[in-house]
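Q: what sequence does this backbone want?
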């Protein structure tokens, strides 16, 4: 996050804070113009990071506000861009005819996500704040730990998150907490990519905790962290695209969208995030099979409505009307 502030402070925030929270002029008797000039000079003298604002760049309140704005815009933009791409280019919209697909579901998923995002961002703020104030183990130059560590730390990041998210998710299915925290995400039996952030805020926060904690217990290069962090957001969207590819050899190892589709249908299987090994090891893995594809039930409904033929081919509706 310090990278985002390094870019956006000179570009936007310095001017914005100078406008909304200007440096207070020091009252000096006599020439008013001189007084204002002297005030600004005094403010500059107080902190070289002021840039005309009473809140210099390292002011904690300013950092909180800036970080909230950045995470809010960043998370919303990522969500809409990648969910829309996945929805229009990957998601099979015939699934919307599935009997368990809710009325106005996409709209409900978007509203639920937009409610959750600001709360998740506020809850996550202390982590980002600690990062920009230099309390984390994020480092800038690869030479500090070397190239081998760059690769090892990426692998550790994936393993740590996979195990932690598996167990956080699995524990969220415990009856004592399920209905309070995780049930809202299981409202979507047949999810679309827009369900990726449609969580109770505490659920979204709990499942993102491992990423944030990692950089306080293990050194990670900061640009790599940004890349991995964004990749995780995109991955979360992709596993909600309902694609039931089965039989691909990678499906043995990767927690594919097909696995997560089965999690939404059967609840107590496939809790994983990236890989299937936690589910296999702790006996909750359900491999995707063609006969479990929710598209089968969606096509049944489409056949009843006369939208597709027995083989699932679309029946042109104009032609049907003229017959
Ligand atoms: Zn889900
Ligand atoms: Zn779940």
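A:
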């Amino acid at each position: 996050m310090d990278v985002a502030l390094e870019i956006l402070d000179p570009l936007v925030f310095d001017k914005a804070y100078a406008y909304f929270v200007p440096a207070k002029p020091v009252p000096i008797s006599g020439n008013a113009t001189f007084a204002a000039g002297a005030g600004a000079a005094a403010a500059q003298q107080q902190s070289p990071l002021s840039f005309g604002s009473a809140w210099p760049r390292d002011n904690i309140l300013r950092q909180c506000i800036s970080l909230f704005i950045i995470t809010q815009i960043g998370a919303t933009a990522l969500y809409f861009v990648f969910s829309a791409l996945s929805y229009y280019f990957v998601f099979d919209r015939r699934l919307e005819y599935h009997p368990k697909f809710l009325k106005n579901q996409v709209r409900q998923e978007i509203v639920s996500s937009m409610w959750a995002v600001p709360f998740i961002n506020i809850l996550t703020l202390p982590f980002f704040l600690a990062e920009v104030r230099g309390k984390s183990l994020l480092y800038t130059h690869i030479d500090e730990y070397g190239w081998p560590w760059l690769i090892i730390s990426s692998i550790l990041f994936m393993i740590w998150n996979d195990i932690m998210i598996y167990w956080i998710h699995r524990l969220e299915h415990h009856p004592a907490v399920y209905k309070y925290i995780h049930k809202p995400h299981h409202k979507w039996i047949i999810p679309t990519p827009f369900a990726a952030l449609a969580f109770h805020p505490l659920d979204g926060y709990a499942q993102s905790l491992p990423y944030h904690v990692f950089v306080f217990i293990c050194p990670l290069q900061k640009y790599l962290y940004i890349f991995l962090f964004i990749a995780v957001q995109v991955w979360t969207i992709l596993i909600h695209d309902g694609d039931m590819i089965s039989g691909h050899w990678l499906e043995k190892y990767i927690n594919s969208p097909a696995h997560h589709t089965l999690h939404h249908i059967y609840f107590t299987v496939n809790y994983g995030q990236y890989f299937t090994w936690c589910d296999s090891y702790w006996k909750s893995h359900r491999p995707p099979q063609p006969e479990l594809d929710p598209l089968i039930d969606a096509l049944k409904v489409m056949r009843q409505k006369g939208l597709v033929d027995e083989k699932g081919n679309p029946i042109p509706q104009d032609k049907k009307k003229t017959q």
